[in-house]
Write a structure and sequence with these properties.
mainly alpha; 4 helices; about 80 residues
Length: about 80
Amino acid sequence: MVITLDSELEAALNDAARRQGIAPEVLAANLLRKHFPTAADLQPRDEWERGLLASARDWGVVLTDEAVSREGMYE
């Protein structure tokens, strides 16, 4: 995947990466992992979390933003 950044965002990414002493690509990947965790990142840390994840079900329903808005709740 190739992501095209505007010059301002690229400069900010390069500056932040330089301050952290890492490559800009590594910083970008770390930030994406932080905001979009994968299934491997969601490993339970204790018995309570194992039970919670075991009880979860994929019902295949995604509510729209309008459906969960204040106005949408009363329709």
